Clathrin heavy chain (Prolemur simus), 366 residues
Amino acid sequence: PQVGDRCYDEKMYDAAKLLYNNVSNFGRLASTLVHLGEYQAAVDGARKANSTRTWKEVCFACVDGKEFRLAQMCGLHIVVHADELEELINYYQDRGYFEELITMLEAALGLERAHMGMFTELAILYSKFKPQKMREHLELFWSRVNIPKVLRAAEQAHLWAELVFLYDKYEEYDNAIITMMNHPTDAWKEGQFKDIITKVANVELYYRAIQFYLEFKPLLLNDLLMVLSPRLDHTRAVNYFSKDAMQYASESKDTELAEELLQWFLQEEKRECFGACLFTCYDLLRPDVVLETAWRHNIMDFAMPYFIQVMKEYLTKVDKLDASESLRKEEEQATETQPIVYGNLFLPSKKYIRQTFNSLEILPQH
């Protein structure tokens, strides 16, 4: 063996090959065959040596030689060791051989010694390079991946539907609902949403979900409410919808609609909503109609802030009109008492002439 090692160190690989073969030193033989470019024979030698170190050496040499079929044969003996997986993945990735790496890991999933790291790393590779394959992979093997690690990968890759799937399996229901509402085009599914919303811990998400449906899927709102009904604070829910109704009425610019909404609040005995609506729809409402309605239903206290605002606004308008009228009269009076000059010709006004004669105590006959 010492002679073989000396030949190997001196790069006399043909001689080393013969010597190692004679003494059945298959590990060193495999290393020697790699240097000779005899990759198939090197894999055979590695199989006989059956050590992780030899498998790695031959695998990496095959990758460098772009003998990916042989590299995969070696790699399948390496990936089953969890502590060796990262180095192997990095060797492929650093050289840009993502397809070949994915193919190898796919082949390794069926191995008896397949472990969580393999399923996890393949999911992460899918998220980066083959996102179309990730969903199927997760549906088959979600229980065998490191979910927090794959969650981060899915988020970084903006795979929102897959992210919701993982949050659901990981029982992070609040995050699943938030993701669906933030990315509805990719992540929202009606059945899945209704199933998960009943499991959330934060009850505020019930009301966010209602708002989401109002904006995104209004025709399905009733189906959502059927699911949420046992869990909602009904008073708060009605007030929530009242707020939206007021906003809608205000944006409609329809006086009749706004006044009908006021009547509905009174029928439902929601006096606070009546008072709030007076300001939300302030520009649309007719003060005389509001006054009569409030008086008939004996709720002047709820309407009084509105009338104070109306009175203030009207008084401000009257003061402005008075000021404008006074200014107009002053300007008119000043115009009447001023003589009119056309070029060098002086033409006194009638009022100016009369005032002049009066000051002289002279009354003209004509």
